[in-house]
Amino acid sequence: xxxxxxxxxxxxxxxxxxxxxxxxxxxxxxxxxxxxxxxxxxxxxxxxxxxxxxxxxxxxxxxxxxxxxxxxxxxxxxxxxxxxxxxxxxxxxxxxxxxxxxxxxxxxxxxxxxxxxxxxxxxxxxxxxxxxxxxxxxxxxxxxxxxxxxxxxxxxxxxxxxxxxxxxxxxxxxxxxxxxxxxxxxxxxxxxxxxxxxxxxxxxxxxxxxxxxxxxxxxxxxxxxxxxxxxxxxxxxxxxxxxxxxxxxxxxx
Amino acid sequence: xxxxxxxxxxxxxxxxxxxxxxxxxxxxxxxxxxxxxxxxxxxxxxxxxxxxxxxxxxxxxxxxxxxxxxxxxxxxxxxxxxxxxxxxxxxxxxxxxxxxxxxxxxxxxxxxxxxxxxxxxxxxxxxxxxxxxxxxxxxxxxxxxxxxxxxxxxxxxxxxxxxxxxxxxxxxxxxxxxxxxxxxxxxxxxxxxxxxxxxxxxxxxxxxxxxxxxxxxxxxxxxxxxx
Lengths: 253, 227
Hints:
By secondary structure, chain A is an alpha+beta fold. Chain A has 9 helices and 7 strands, in the order ββαβββββαααααααα. Chain B has one domain: 3 helical TM bundles of succinate and fumarate reductases, CATH 1.20.1300.
């Protein structure tokens, strides 16, 4: 277990009205810690010194909840691909490194405090249509509704989205297209969700626009930073479904 | 018809306009290049001048050219509006940016587009404006019973100026980068992302973005060095 001495430049912001600034801290860590455990150590020392600990979001700490959300050295969830911050370990850094930690930056994700941002805009996109509006009853017997393997896999790949917002954080336009398209795809590809697919896509895109996210310019930064490696093929699917729904269906939302 | 305006003001609708106008302008690049390569014909400018006369006098071509001007303006204005909206949607920038997750071109389409637009102004000021409103000498050719403007001569003098040649090359590099992202991006926006076709579209995009600007660049370089 080798000890590491790190310099952290952490974004500190009291609340949404505060303009915010970087503060530097020294922290002693070891390579087996997760990134969040390293921040826990920092916070413990801050508490012992009667200083305000750094606010950051975390919940499951096993990479499946989407709570952790910070930009580490310019990359959402840090330098390791396909990984959430909580699953990023300190062995990916060297002793003596300076690590810059910032919150997600997007107008639609206002900072609540330090590294914590308000992601309820995502919740409202889901509320606009990211569900199946009838009671689907008990879980079906595995083979009661046959679904082609390829489709099931595509739907499942989209369904792995944990809604962390790294796509918005990575996007130079703060676009939420990867998130929204993942939700549209995972429901729309399966028979139970396909029924409302056409209306759902219009409702969710409308809400996404109202939340003030930017427009997709196909930079592909989102799929590079997505901890669940969700592909921008989902964005293309949403684009064509949306156009098909607007021009080809009798539905307007 | 509120559904139409809803669509055109939605994020996807705005991007669709960029995609369609972009593809239209790409098709123009091919036509314009094919015509202009006649400048390289060793006939004292006859084929180019006769072609230029046709392009400016054929009613069908003239109609299309208004569509082209509209396409350029729509693409440019919509592009700037989108870039401004996107910038404000991002709000503040990161202190550290790695640039690792997206290409330079994809993140700087508005900047590249502005460079191309500036180039277009120079380009049209130099040829189109002088052809329409300035004095270009008339010239007669054997076998053609009308006189045509000697645009070839105009090209000849313009490309003797090294500053003009450099401006053209800068404009073409910006165009190449703009196309490197824009070509395949236009298809993605249309929703055309397909296991079988996308690799082909991306490959075509790269070849097009490199070959077409190079072919255009040959013209000023050839005139500067050899004419």
